[in-house]
# Entry
Amino acid sequence: MKSPLTAFVGMATAIGLVLGLSMFILGQSARAAEETAVIVLMRQLLVAQTTYYGTYSQFAGHPRELLREGLISNKVTDDGMYLGYRIEMTVPNGRRWASAAHPVTGGQWARYFYMDDAGVVRSERGKPATEASQPLN
# Structure
């Protein structure tokens, strides 16, 4: 027969494991939701840049330009932050553009995104995505 203390320790350990696993799963779910929202924003950038170009005959070089025109989510801050990601945009030759989303807190499991004017979103885990990165399905 187990002593009450042994039973209590066993139950406390089981509860701790369940709570720890639950927190891990919730954390993964939150990260997946943020990544999905960033992918949606990246796809919005394609339409936003096309619209911006139609108005100004040039592409926007920073998310704030698209934000001020109301072309992207108002949850993007003026300095290009969105759900823990920094959104960066480049217009290397005036005829093309690219954007990248870098997580503020990186790490080996962090997901980075890249998209250019072709509209293909690409991603990498643990390092910045580039035009050579694997496209999303």
The two ends are 56 Å apart (CA to CA). Helices lie at 4-56, 63-68. The first strand starts at residue 81 and ends at 82. Confidence is low (pLDDT under 50) at residues 16-27.
